[in-house]
Amino acid sequence: MDDYYLDPLLGLIPVVGDILPQIFNFSFFYVSTFKIKSYALTVTILRNILIDILVGIIPYLGIILDVFHKSYQKNFNLIVGFVNNDKNIIREVNQKAFSTTIWIAIIGVAIYYLTVFLWSIVMGVYHWVINLF
To answer: In this structure, are residues 8 and 65 in contact, taking their beta carbons and an 8 Å threshold?
Structure first.
């Protein structure tokens, strides 16, 4: 999806553009969790997925940022590195496992508050339009 810029193109479609790319991301999460069974790899892939979600829910700017944040390519390279026993990737992922876990919590909170903020804007505009009539 990254090489063909499908993620930013899907981002142009409201709601579907935010949900559909994450369904494709689930395959990386599944492989790291149930096939490779590495906690460090799983949290690293989860961090990349959450960053992709966070970037994707930012209106308009998220579409542009999706071009530069290539989570599919990163996750694919991590899995291939683990399967091929690439010492550099394994060492890097294992060293950053704890900090990645903390980043997952921070990104999750950021996604929550950004979603609440955007929802309050949508509801404010909705009530403003309703009160016009």
So the answer is: no
